[in-house]
Prior knowledge:
Strand order of the largest sheet: 1-2-3-5-4
Radius of gyration: 15 Å
Oligomer: single chain
Number of strands: 5
CATH architecture: 2-Layer Sandwich
Number of domains: 1
Number of helices: 4
Amino acid sequence: MMKFENYMTLEFPSKSCNEAFARSAVACFAAQLDPTMEELGDIRTAVSEAVTNCIVHAYPDELGTVTVRCRILKGQTLDIVVKDKGIGISDIEQARKPMFTTGGMDRSGMGFTIMESFMTNLDITSEPGKGTTVHMRRKLQRRK
């Protein structure tokens, strides 16, 4: 178990208005690492994509719960977990492919690709009918 220096946990209903709240809360928490504006933008975008996936895909026909946990790990690393108890993903490998979506014509299918490009690590675990966990890490540059 990796030691952490600080942590926070948020839990909220899967309403689209909460996506901006989660993105801002994680950015505020990450600020204690003194990230650059670019790093902060990347973190906001990745969290936004993960939370939007929960809202759109995990609970397509009902409201559910989204949990966001952030930890600051040794070595200037931000650890973010976004979790739902929704419908789950049957084929994670397929879901990670760029342009693949189950969300209809108005969705780009780029969520996981965007998360992967902005984070140092991205792991996705899911079980159909039980939910999905997106685990992201971003190592931040130590500013002088």
